[in-house]
Amino acid sequence: MRRSYDREADAVAISFEGVKWEKTIDITGDIFVDVDRYGRLAGIEILHASEKLKLSDLMDMSMEQPVHNIAVHKLVSDFHLYVLTDYSLSRGRSNMEVVKEAIAGGADAIQLRDKGYTAKRLLQEALTLRDITREGGVPFIVNDRVDVALVVDADGVHIGQDDVPISWARRLLGKDKIIGMSTHSVEEAVQAEKDGADYVSIGSAFPTTTKSDARPLAGLEIITDIKKNVNVPVVAIGGIKAENAAQVGQAGADCIAVISAVVSAINIKEATAELREEFLAAKAKLEVSTGDTVRSSSIRKNNP
Ligand code: TZP
Ligand code: MG
What we know:
- It contains 13 helices and 14 strands.
- Helix 10 runs parallel beside helix 12 (268-290).
- The strands form three sheets. Strands 7-8-9-10-11-12-13-14 form an eight-stranded parallel beta barrel, surrounded by eight helices.
- The chain has helices at residues 35-41, 55-61, 70-77, 95-104, 119-136, 146-151, 166-173, 186-195, 221-229, 245-251, 260-263, 268-290, 296-300, and strands spanning 5-6, 11-16, 19-24, 32-34, 44-50, 52-54, 81-84, 109-112, 140-143, 156-159, 178-183, 199-203, 234-237, 255-258.
- Helix content is 40%, strand content 20%.
- It binds 4-methyl-5-hydroxyethylthiazole phosphate and magnesium ion.
- 4-methyl-5-hydroxyethylthiazole phosphate is lined by residues 203-204, 208, 210-211, 214, 237-240, 258-261.
C-alpha cells in the first residue's frame, strides 16, 4: 500500500475495488479512525489521506458494504477478557450467576458454550444470558448455533472450522453482528479474516482438560505469528489462568478467552478482575516497548 499522510490536508484519495476516488472531507468530527488500519480492513487502499479521518467518512467511502464492518471491528478491539460458559465446571452455579459475577469482575464479552445442551435448553439459557449481558452492557456471543444467535438477537456467533462457513453465518446474521472463528494455524487465521471473520481465536495456548477434542497444543509463538498476518483481533484460548495470562499478553494477543479460570473459581468476580489485570498489565508493557499506545479506558475499566 502506498501511503502519504498530510497533517494539514483535508482531502482523501482512495481506491476501492480498482475505482479511484477523491473526496474533500471535514475533519472536525469527533470520531476518528486510524485510516491505514481500518482502510485495510474495509478493503480500501488509501492513496492519500489526512491523518485523522472520521469513521463515518471512511464508511461512506467504501461505497459498498466493506468486507469488515468498521464499527464491529472497533467493538471487538475492546475485548480483552472473554468468558465462555460451561455449566459442568461451575460448581453447580447457574450460567446466570456465573455470568453476572463475571460481568461484575470486568469481563468484556460473554459466550454461551454449553456443548451438551439440547436446542431447547440452549435457547432458554441464551434468552437469560441475553438479558443479563444487555443489562451489563457486555456483548453476547453464541457458540456454534447461528440459529440461536439470530433468534435471541445475540451480538454474534463463534464458529469453528467444522461448523457452518462464515459466509453462511454472515448471510444469516448480517453485517452488524460479530462472527468469530476458531483457528489453529496462520493459514486458517488469514483465511478466516478473508472470509469476513471479525476476530480469530487460537488455541490451546497452554494444556487444558476443558476441551475434550482439543487439537495439539498451539503454544504462544503462533499467537505472535498470527498477529503479524491478520488485522482482526486475535483471541488466545486454552489453559489460561492468572499465573500465565501475562505470557499471553507478551505474545501479543488482543484478548484472552477462558472457561475454567473464571467459571470454576470460588470467587468469580475476583478471579475475573485478576485475570484481566494480569493480561492488560503485560499488554501495556509490550505496547510501551513497541511504541504502541494502550487505550486508557480499557486499563481503567475496574479501577476508577
Ligand atoms: N478451545 C480451545 S481450548 C478451549 C476451547 C474452547 C477450552 C478452554 O477452556 P479453559 O478451561 O480456559 O482451558
Ligand atoms: Mg463449533
